[in-house]
Amino acid sequence: MQTRRILLVSGTAAFAGGAGVLSGAALPETALARPRHHAHKAPAENPDETTGTDVPGASAPAMTPIGPVDTVARWACIMDFSSGMVLLEKAADERMPPSSLTKMMTAYVVFAMLQAGRLKLDQMLPVSERAWRMQGSKMFVPLGESIAVQELIQGMLIQSGNDACIVLAEGIAGSEEQFVALMNDTATKLGMTNSHFMNATGWPAEGHYMSARDVCTIAMHLIRDYPQYYHFFSETEFKFNKISQGNRNVLVDKGLADGLKTGHTDAGGFGLCASSQREGRRVVMALNGMASSNVRAHEGERLLAWSFANFELATIVKKGQVLEQAPVWMGEAATVPVVVAQDVSLVLPHGWQSKVRVSLDYASPVLAPVAAGQALGHLTITLPGTPGAAVPTPPVAPPTPEAGVPPVVPAPPAPPATSADRVIMVSVQAGAAVTKLGFGGRIASRLGMRHH
Questions:
Q1: Helices 212-225, 103-115: inter-axial angle, 10-degree rounding
Q2: Can you name the residues that pair with 6 across neighbouring β-strands?
Q3: How many C-beta atoms surround the C-beta of residue 30 within 10 A?
Q4: Which of 38, 76, 210, 303 lies in the 20 to 30 Å Cα band around 373?
Q5: Which has the closest alpha carbon to 296: 278, 321, 316, 269?
Q6: Chain-centre distance of CA 371, in angstroms?
Q7: Is 160 a catalytic residue?
Q8: DSSP of 102-114
Q9: Long-range contacts of the stretch 240-246 (C-beta < 8 A, 24+)
Q10: Is 120 among the residues known to form the active site?
């Protein structure tokens, strides 16, 4: 048995008829560029202020797949929601003071408790003196009274209330310190490697930090994991204790985004995390280290528009589309169709269709019996010059060879990829079942006789 590698599309052949990289129900033989191979043999926050903040390092450009883009943000990360593709990044893994962007993690822990049934929206939580005395942006909770969880969530996310965060933290975990332990544990589980929390509010503290990429990560998890609570981020106004306050996220107020959060500290400058969905695409953006709330609003609006204007959603392979007819050894059928289990779509810069390279790798021939949906190999999609790393796919275990079957031949080397390439690997599977030949058929096959 040897590994068969097939270059399905490359260069200008990538898109056909606008239907996607690989269009049609099956690929014609002429569409496959095959490398040389041997013949097949039997297998073996805090308060948001309007005063300016001097933030160093804000003048450098951000990196994008289409080249550098200027931004006044010191830290930035913009990601496509469905694919996780990075559209723009600037010091995205550098630890930064997150200010009230911290409240997104606080909200995530609260939402987890709600979904687990350990907390209810109408549950009343008491206001401690510590919560009442908390400075910075406030919901203005009254000392000694109890407040419904839903109102506390609104106060935390719409009014950016530090006092609301303390009431929630104490009500859930007994103390803010115990609640922070839940936040850090959750950050670890979500893969937020450049985040550590010292409090539930984002109040400046030594050892309290997040990265712009981690801010995008928690935002995407909030949207994906708890869609039933995401609407809290898009509410434009909330009135509590006879005090009405508007959503501090100007993009939400203008209808340009449907969430998430803003923040400000002297050390971190003015920050923003926003998400917007347009024409079937959702983008998540994290910016921080800007000089004023006005700059934050304008830069957020500009970069959000840039993210939608310069990229498009392209279907690379459709679910059930036959990529190849793989030879089958000792099967009632001579071949089995190779397919993907679901549509494979990517966000690409406009005009990048001709740069997509798609190749198929699988162990050939496939040993019968073959079950429908059985893993056969992987599809490798390479986008040159795109920030990102390879997405690993576990290797497909070769079948146990029968007596007299040659051992597996190692796979030929993959086409070279530069360090800037984005390589995505997608599992492929059998599109149909193939039964094993009966005893007589196996004998005939080994003697080189035709079975059919």
A1: 20
A2: 360
A3: 6
A4: 38
A5: 269
A6: 31
A7: yes
A8: GHHHHHHHHHHHH
A9: 240/139, 240/140, 240/151, 240/154, 240/155, 240/159, 241/139, 241/140, 241/141, 241/142, 243/140, 245/158, 245/159, 246/158
A10: no
What whole-number distance in Å separates Cα of residue 229 and Cα of residue 91?
30
Q: Which of 99, 100, 293, 359 is catalytic?
A: 100
Do 15 and 314 form a contact (C-beta atoms < 8 A)?
yes
pTM score, whole prediction: 0.74
Q: Which residue is catalytic, options 99, 128, 137, 160? A: 160
SS (H, E, C) 179-240: HHHHHHHHHHHCCCCCCECCCCCCCCCCCCEECHHHHHHHHHHHHHHCHHHHHHHHCCEEEE
Which H or E element spans position 87? Answer: strand 86-90
Which secondary-structure segment (H or E) carries 364? Answer: strand 357-364
Any residues with CB less than 8 A from the CB of 154 and at least 6 apart, and which?
Answer: 232, 235, 238, 240
pLDDT value for 343: 87
Task: Decide the pairing of beta strands 243-246 and 259-265.
Answer: unpaired
Per the CB < 8 A criterion, the answer to whether 96 and 268 are in contact is yes
pLDDT along the chain (452 residues), means of 10: 59 39 40 32 42 55 90 96 91 95 96 96 93 84 90 92 93 95 96 96 94 97 96 88 82 92 92 93 95 94 95 87 93 94 86 83 92 93 59 35 38 44 87 83 52 46
Residue 317 · residue 342 · CB < 8 Å: no
pLDDT value of residue 1: 57
Q: Which of 90, 99, 103, 138 is catalytic?
A: 103
Tokens of 358: 């798609």
pLDDT at position 327 is 94
Provide the 3-class DSSP secondary structure of residue 375.
Answer: strand
Distance CA 7, CA 17 (A): 19
Which stretch of DSSP H or E encloses residue 348?
strand 344-349
Instruction: Decide the pairing of beta strands 2-9 and 357-364.
Output: antiparallel
CA 317 to chain centre: 19
* Domains contained in the chain, CATH given: 2-44+314-446 (2.60.410.10), 75-309 (3.40.710.10)
List the structure tokens of 142.
């009254």
Cβ-based neighbour number of residue 338 at 10 Å: 24
How far apart, in whole angstroms, are the C-alpha atoms of residue 126 and residue 340?
53
User: CA-CA distances (angstroms) from residue 84 to 52, 67, 217, 285, 346?
Assistant: 33, 19, 9, 12, 9
